[in-house]
Amino acid sequence: MRLVTELDGVLLVDKAAGMTSHDVVAIVRRALGFKKVGHCGTLDPLATGLLIVVLGRGTKIQDLLMAEDKEYVGTMTLGATTDSQDADGVIVETKPVPELAREQIDAAFQKFHGDFYQMPPMVSAIKKDGVPLYKLARQGKTVEREPRFVHVFAHEINAVRLPEIDFRVVCSKGFYVRTYAHDIGAELGCGAHLKALRRTKSGRFDLQRSITVADLQTKQHDEIVSKIISLPEVSRLRGA
């Protein structure tokens, strides 16, 4: 492995399903032979898509990049609620899915548009007394959480094939898409959980310039380095 001592910028990775964001960071470190690597905006193992990886001095703008709006496409399944609010969890309740009119579905989505409060799920990285909630959840514990003020800038219902609904949402930092699916299911009266999720955009970055995890594991070092976006270009893209 070639050891690199100086490498600054941003690498856009198209995360595969079944791995954590930390797994991606470890793969980037091995591929580049470089240790100073971080990521912006955790993606759950279930989710795929855009993960912004910061390198070297790029780690200093990590918080700035994490604060930007995100775009996702996803699928929710009505009629089943899970303990994690997504398909990786255990089903805790099932209900029949009624013959919903498109107007009812539109109204449920519209309720979660603009400004509103969202209750963070127990399976999240938010800390309670220094302990991430997901670790408490694994111990079977449920603790009181503070609702978070969030914003949905845009949403689309891309397809309805009950019990599934495909959607797109553009949202603020700190937004939980699985909670969005859970809450819309509750509004429709039959419950729901998030079946699939893909992040397509974060701030000014999208998947067009991304590298797949498979390519990170197989491409030559120089090919991977050529995908890094320099800090001056990051600044221009952000309009900073």
Topology (elements, then pairings):
Layout: E1 9-15, H1 21-32, E2 37-40, E3 48-55, H2 62-66, E4 70-78, E5 80-82, E6 91-94, H3 102-111, E7 114-118, E8 127-128, E9 131-132, H4 133-138, E10 148-161, E11 164-171, H5 177-188, E12 192-202, E13 205-206, E14 211-212, H6 213-218, H7 221-225, H8 231-238
Parallel strand pairs: 1-14, 3-12
Antiparallel strand pairs: 1-3, 2-3, 4-11, 4-12, 5-6, 7-10, 8-9, 10-11, 12-13
Helix pairs in contact: 3-5
Tell me about this structure.
- It is a single chain.
- The protein is of the alpha+beta class and 240 residues long.
- The protein has 2 domains: 9-67 and 205-238, Pseudouridine synthase; 70-201, Pseudouridine synthase, CATH 3.30.2350.10.
- Helices cover 27% and strands 34% of the residues.
- It contains 8 helices and 14 strands.
- The protein has helices at residues 21-32, 62-66, 102-111, 133-138, 177-188, 213-218, 221-225, 231-238; strands at residues 9-15, 37-40, 48-55, 70-78, 80-82, 91-94, 114-118, 127-128, 131-132, 148-161, 164-171, 192-202, 205-206, 211-212.
- It is elongated.
